[in-house]
Amino acid sequence: MMSLSRRCTRTVICVIFLIQTVVFIVTMMPRQAAVQKVTTTVLELDTVAMTTAAPPDNDTLELFLADYEEQCERQFLPKRSNFVGSYGGGNRASLCPCIPDSLEGPLNISALHPLPIGEMELQQKELKPGGMWSPSSCQPRQRVAIIIPFRDREEHLMLLLNILHPMLQRQMLHYTIFVIEQSRPPVFNKAALMNTGYMEARNVADFDCYIFHDVDMLPENDRNFYTCSESPRHVGSHIDKWKYTVPYPGIFGGVTAFTKELFEHVNGFSNQFYGWGGEDDDMYSRIRAKNLTIVRFSKTVARYTMIKHKGDVGNPYNVKSGIAWKFRPKHYLVDGLNSLRYKLVEVELRPLYFWMLVALPPHPSYFKRSQRSIRVTSGTKPVLVLTSVERVSLAAAFLWYSLIGSLQ
Fold first, then answer.
1. Distance of alpha carbon 191 from alpha carbon 140, whole angstroms
2. How many CB atoms lie within 10 A of CB 241?
3. Listed residue (167, 181, 280) closest to 232, CA to CA
């Protein structure tokens, strides 16, 4: 009798597990198919000497620099509205070199430390108010806006500025650094801040290139040119955190670059992603929806150190960030630059950067409750955020194994 009871119990458990397994597979298939499609697209379309495995060497660097110089000479010509001083008139001889002799190559990031703001201001006396600089000896090829979403990371910001200002000047760019700080609500919305920075920078000048820059991403090589081409570019593609590899083909965050036309074509970032996670994967889907090509430079130059820091109370993990994996072309048309809402609280042209304090709409109500998120990982690479149905499926699997073990 006991043996029959055990067999019946096992049968019921197996049936439940099989049902849950089928549900799990069905719910995962569209997302895995989307990832596979992204993988194929990126590997076929990436340009400009993309590498993900070979260590840096002189041959790779020379090939990259030759490719970049050819592209720069052909594409990077300044708009007439951005001519500086007496270098107008379309005289190509007056253009700044694509690869200036002032470049240093690899930077010793470990030796850097945040300078006091007063000392950095003394070092950067040539900056105009609002963190703007342009070379005086030649006509810069592009006018670049660096947009940094920010809150409560003053030390990180000073360290980044200590690298960016000298580096961009050695690259002989006409640039302005914008720091967009969030005043409210309590939960951070990086993507909406980047949209806000774009809208406001567009009103300041006719920029050729917009670079969206996390405050904790430190460039390790000044040959990683902060310029824009005819495709969206993943500037911060090789990070020490991932051992200088691209962890998955659809990654598109940290430091990214768009022309005005490209950024408006994808309708900017989503404004929905409060808290940590989701906005970069959503942007990749927007690029894919428009059949655009993503560019990544060689890891010989596109190398970054990510500053280690503790979790931010105001930037909790967004348990609904998994929606970024869903391919929603119709949604991208109505969520982005054309749905952005914000209020400029304060604006200052500070010596090192153009500062804006911004208020955004309230964060979603689910952030007001205590939440514990479940995240599946493989090594150091995030794979998927589980939905409720998928959580139940995994829970059923664990229950099955534990019960079968107890019946042995």
1. 29
2. 12
3. 280
Q: How far apart are CA 408 and CA 400, in angstroms?
A: 12
In the structure encoding, which two tokens stand for residue 152, read together? 């409560």
For the segment 353-363, the average pLDDT, to the nearest whole number, is: 95
> Which of 55-64, 199-208, 301-310, 387-396 has the weakest average pLDDT?
387-396
pTM of the predicted model, to two decimals? 0.76
Q: Report which DSSP code applies to 359.
A: E
Q: Are 99 and 173 in contact (CB under 8 A)?
A: no
Q: Quick check: 199 and 340 in contact, CB under 8 A? A: yes
Residue 150 tokens, joined: 């920010």
Q: Which residue has the higher pLDDT, 378 or 267?
A: 267
Rounded Cα–Cα distance for residues 28 and 383 (Å): 12
Tokens at 406, concatenated: 């107890």
| Cα-Cα-Cα-Cα dihedral sign, residues 364, 370, 375, 381 | positive
Most confident of 24-38, 42-56, 93-107, 367-381: 93-107
At 377, which helix (H) or strand (E)? Answer: strand 375-378
Tokens representing 95 are: 């253009």
The size of the chain, in residues, is: 408
Tell me which amino acid residue 62 is.
E
